[in-house]
Write a structure and sequence with these properties.
By secondary structure, the protein is mainly alpha-helical. It contains eight helices and no strands.
Length: 195
């Protein structure tokens, strides 16, 4: 780890602690530090779907930031937990964009959707939108079966988090993350392909 990386991680921890104590401005100071990493994580989602070329990573990062602001001051335990919450936000943003696309295709009754996103800048293809909704449905089923496995998938799939980051965010061992990730991927594959 370089000195720059260590300083950045320390700064993240300091700003998260300030935010947890109620200093709303700390998140504004934190954003420039984490912005590049949030962009990298959002951009990595493009490669999870072969036709996600219309994804506006800037829109996802901005909407993620808005969701993080709304999350409140007590929700971030550490750097990894911050990125876990960001992963959940990215999932919600993509699912909401997919629901909007489906609603518009099915008659435009967008008003009935639970949408709290700030902008409608995320454009998804029909196929990507449906794939995201299938993944989300499967993940909701997995949450019922095993919440930890579902959280591991959120971290790894939607947040692009490493094994170690996921372990830290969920307060479990890296070995448990690896095991949960393998079990969850197998279960999701079976559910999505064979019902």
């Amino acid at each position: 780890m370089t000195d720059n990386t260590a300083l950045t991680e320390k700064d993240i921890t300091v700003y998260l602690e300030e935010f947890r104590r109620g200093n709303k401005n700390a998140l504004d100071r934190l954003l420039p530090i984490v912005y590049k990493e949030l962009c990298r994580r959002a951009h990595s989602l493009r490669f999870r779907f072969y036709n996600l070329d219309t994804l506006n990573t800037t829109a996802i990062v901005h909407e993620t930031y808005i969701k993080l602001l709304r999350a409140g001051s007590g929700n971030f335990r550490n750097r990894s937990h911050f990125y876990f919450v960001a992963s959940k936000a990215m999932r919600q943003i993509l699912v909401n964009a997919s629901l909007r696309k489906r609603a518009l295709r099915n008659g435009g009754n967008e008003k009935t959707l639970p949408i709290d996103d700030a902008h409608n800048d995320i454009q998804l293809s029909e196929q990507t939108s449906e794939e995201l909704l299938v993944i989300n449905e499967a993940l909701e089923k997995l949450e019922i079966r095993n919440d930890r496995h579902a959280k591991v998938v959120e971290c790894r799939f939607f947040g692009g988090m490493s094994i170690e980051e996921t372990a830290s965010a969920l307060d479990i061992s890296p070995a448990t993350v690896k095991r949960s990730w393998n079990i969850a991927r197998t279960w999701l594959y079976t559910y999505m392909n064979y019902g």
